[in-house]
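To fix ideas, we quote verbatim one protein's residues and fold tokens.
>
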Amino acid sequence: MADEVLTERRGRVLLTTLNRPDARNAINHELAEGLVRAVEELDGDEGLTAGVLTGAGRGFCSGMDLKAFAARGAPKAVVRFLEDGAAKPLVAAIEGFAMAGGLELALTCDLLVAAKGAKLGIPEAGVGLFAAGGGLLRLPQRVPYGVAMEMALTADPIRAEQAFEYGLVIRLAAPGQAVEVALALAERIARNAPLALATSKRLIRSSQGCTEAEFWAMQRPQIPGVFESEDAKEGPRASPRSGRRSGAAARAARSLALGTRRPAVGRRPRVTPSLREGVTMLSELENLQPPPPAADLEEEGLAAWEASFEHDRQIWGELLAENVERLERGSYSLHWTDTTNSHWGTRVQPSSRGLTFNDINRSKAYGTIPDRADNRNLSPRGSVRAEHRDRMPVLEAYTLLDKYEIWADNVSTLYEEAKSRQWNSTTDIPWAELEPASEDLEKAACQFSTFLSEVEFVAGDFPSRWIYKIPQDFFEVKNFLVTQMMDEARHMEVFRKRALAGGGGLLHASPAFEWSMKAILEAPTHTMGTYLLNLLGEGFVLSVFRAGEFLARTTVDREIFRRCMQDEARHVAYGTMELKSYLENHPDPETALANMHRFADLGEVVLFTSFVDPCLLEPIAVLMGGSLAEIDEGFEGISFLWTTLREEYLQRCDRAGFDRRDRCQIPEFLPGMS
């Protein structure tokens, strides 16, 4: 292969480098032909599953070599690559720039990784040309229409950070690290089954602009080759993450594969010949082996646990032998009395509230909170631990090691408040005083209680996902999150009791609520989930509780709202200050802010689906109006409350340094009430 293009195997990944750094990797005939040969190597070698394409020197590619173009015309090989690309997944790793035909090469790849500050553009209009290498087709498929049009008509490039916000770039890397990030992504892809990857890529690419009917017709003939392949039959050997389908999963796959919809109640679906053909084609799915039984999984887990401790037996076994030998000798260690490296002699004084975390943290020896927790074990902050570190285990679960990921300056104060304001829903609510209500109002109160029973404990489930990942150096946060879990257990309990105490019962769960809770529970980072839960979701509930005087029709309901409101206020305060700390202390604040906005753009919409669900809005309207007959008046009250809810949310974002006013996806007015 000519020196203009270099290839290097990295396991199952082929790294291809455009190697004309002195010419900004401009495309000439030799480079184009070398690129095509590299793609042929990637697609033709069964030992390769994915590829990375990058450029040598300061940038990715500057486009066509105009001197070579004037002398010999456009290289036919580059046209072949631009039109056909690679059959296997290909990731572009962009440093510096990808301009004109260089960006079009990148767009022919499946995924783009770019270093921060890199420029991407199609500047051909500035020299009397247009982007004829597929840029005008592929760019509008990956960025908003207006952005693509602006790039084509102004000839101005965008930076990688903007491209990341638009979704054109899917990973941002530090300058000089684009190849490493792209290789990691390609290696992750290469762990999956090659046939499934190639088919998925082909369908996604071919489906652009298709109708649903066209897509199902396109997908149908692909199914036997993949689902009956050795990869699918071998399952885990073909892909570390693959698993066997149960009969229910197979039926679900069949439904998706055939594009069938759930038939209307009382109607039998008409089975067409193509549907029968598809059912026959997929019948093998029903015969796939079920997942391994729980006993096998238990055995696997036990074996892994045993192997882990056997691996480290030299360390803990030595500790055991030393301690047993000492006891048998009848001697003492007394090393724990050595205060040389301790902070012995520290005396803390209680404040007017008693001895709080803030009081004991006034001592620098114990109150200095590291920016990064280097002790991934259970040793307490401030203890004598450095000299024992080499003999301590590393707890792999501790992954939230940077303070900015979880800290809030008010967390210790909120923890003390949470302890002092604990209440008991069994005895502190005057259940015996619950007055009878009309059926309309009782149904509304019970439906509202059903909503709160369904959603409240997500604020308990979510922190449980993260608490065990927080090292002991940040114990203040761990302790506060435990109180939040206890608060939400109490809220779920009290609203469940409220639904039953008035002679009604729980009413309807809601799919919309469930999707909102899923968005919170599966948030990619602790800060993102805390923002969505504490700042937006619980902020909404807090604002509703504050309107309790309009909703509560009994003294019992007013007392419940009052007590829950003080709990929710703590959670919202933590979420606000945690986001503020994250944005102020992140090592790359611009990227952190961009990622938070990207997350919020979708997160607000997902939670909005629950905010406007009839299982929530309509019972609130009945409670506000006073009866089902007055539901219209109740909705007028909700309309007023809506603007308050939204403004309070935006104010919390402002306090966190997260300006959402121009980007907020939650409409200013309740739909239908503007």
Remarks:
- The first strand starts at residue 5 and ends at 10.
- Confidence is low (pLDDT under 50) at residues 236-288.
